[in-house]
Write a structure and sequence with these properties.
By secondary structure, the protein is an all-alpha fold. It has helices at 4-28, 36-59, 72-78, 85-113, 118-143, 148-168. The structure holds fe (ii) ion (2 copies).
Length: 176
């Protein structure tokens, strides 16, 4: 909250990347027809989030920033993925879920911290609900293809790894 413009710049980037991530599943797994409509819906919703964050930034004269480095959070999470293509597919879906859930958690914190701007507070409340929904959507997608026990066991492992990764990241005005 101490550097909200910088937070918005990172937030906008994350929404754009979330949209790209949903669409990259479509590109990488065109044969997984059961999940394509929901991936497209998610990609559109994330792009709409990006559009709204950018509109808010534009009104306040805050520019987007050029990406300077790969997000260390995403990079560390990607390192958790198996190399075997089937296991990797599950890992990618579950990591997407974890990233969405972490986003929901952060937006809840931001929403609660906003004072004197009811419109912005409502916006972050709406995002918190939307990202929590996405968190469930990606697990549901995984359950189309993998047994429940495998999905939840791996989800627990990846959640634990994510907790360790996030605890080592430097504190900055960003989503992660
Ligand atoms: Fe989003
Ligand atoms: Fe999302």
């Amino acid at each position: 909250m101490a550097d909200f413009p910088a937070f918005l710049q990172d937030h906008a980037d994350c929404e754009r990347k979330a949209s790209a991530m949903a669409m990259s599943f479509v590109a990488k797994y065109p044969d997984r027809v059961e999940i394509i409509p929901e991936l497209i819906d998610t990609g559109i919703e994330e792009l709409q989030h990006f559009q709204r964050v950018y509109a808010y930034m534009e009104k306040r004269g805050i520019r987007l920033v050029k990406e300077r480095w790969q997000d260390p959070y995403i990079q560390a999470l990607s390192g958790q993925c198996h190399t075997d293509p089937i296991d990797r597919f599950l890992d990618r879906l579950l990591l997407a879920s974890i990233i969405e859930c972490r986003g929901a958690e952060r937006f809840r914190l931001v929403c609660n911290a906003i004072e004197n701007d009811p419109e912005l507070k409502d916006f972050y409340h709406e995002l918190w609900v939307s990202e929590a929904k996405h968190g469930n959507v990606f697990v549901k997608m995984a359950l189309n293809y993998f047994p429940e026990q495998q999905v939840y066991q791996r989800l627990q492992e990846l959640n634990r790894a994510e907790g360790e990764i996030v605890s080592k990241l430097p504190l900055r005005a960003a989503l992660h």
